[in-house]
Amino acid sequence: MKVMIFVCGEGLGHTSRCISIGKELVSAGHDVHFGAYGYSRELIERKGFKTHMVPSEITLVGKAGSLNLKKSILATFKRGQFLGIIKIRKFLKRTKPDVVISDSYFMGMLSAKSRSIPCYLIVNQSNMEEFFKGKGVSSKILAELVKKFYTGMFKMADKVIIPDFPLPHAVCRKNLDFKEKTWKKVFFSGPLIGKTFEETIAKELEKPHVLCTVGGFGYREPIFRKVIEAAGMDKSINYTLLSGPSVDPASLGTLPENVTILKFIDDQFPYMKASDLVIAPGGHSTMMEALSFGVPMITVPDQKHSEQQNNALVIEEDGLGKMLDYSTSPDVILENIRVLIDDEKYKKKLTEMRELAVELNGPGAVRLLVEEMEN
Q1: Lowest CB count within 10 Å: 50, 63, 298, 326, which one?
Q2: What domains lie within the chain, and their CATH numbers?
Q3: What residues form DSSP beta bridges with 51?
Q4: pTM (2 d.p.)
């Protein structure tokens, strides 16, 4: 079977989960192709997959840690990016896939349906209109248009795949709002992550260990520096912090001896397996990775980002970690780190989530779904 996977390149979470599906399908003997753009395309190519350049679908606009979806949509229309659907239709006519999997790349799904190709849509949010709440009359009108667009996409898809634990455990559940007919074709695959716990060899790190992926650039720099300050208050806990390629670790001054700063790591799974805690923003994919490895989280969601805020709330409500914000003091950060590392109830809960992720086998579940539907 020939499978085309279209990837939304705005955020590498989409890319990593599609790579996990691609690996599974290739291992089962299927002919897998990717349609991607930007850094996402480069990453997929480095993994050795057949990759094709496709037009980007949306231009993200925002500042100071806040996504402005209204301006993003207007900028996208202004650049004429949605006209790329013509290119995608011609591309599908040339490549002739048997099935299309589209991770939040709606031009791919529209093009597939226009050519009567079965299409599976991957999303972890269906309430994008939340971005527009309380932002004036024009935003309210735009919110209704966005909602109608998404509703149409969900109606058109053959299956809507949610890359999360099934209800009631789904971390993204506060971001899901489907009509009754759509719920009937919703499929909770389980986490889709790049590496499983079993196949990962843990990095040799001093224990207990905290992995912080917040990054030290732009609006996230204050919380990054507060984590470093918290580390200096208790030298018995060790830290690996990812600063990002735009930050020179030398600019951070003298670091506590229990802190290691890395700009970037190609494979963070060995670090995650060796860690007792992960500090990260509220991105869905990182949460799926941490839970699949049985590691509790401190989440620091981006400001005014309703999806991340909702994800972080579920992490705290379900006893899987703590939700903090950019105003949190180093003392409170350290207090929460100690609780999550030492409290046995968190360890028990996270072990259950790791075992559930293994049982679900997300990539395998998606492969079986596609194979069954194709047959």
Answers
A1: 63
A2: 2-195+360-374 (3.40.50.2000), 209-357 (3.40.50.2000)
A3: 34
A4: 0.88
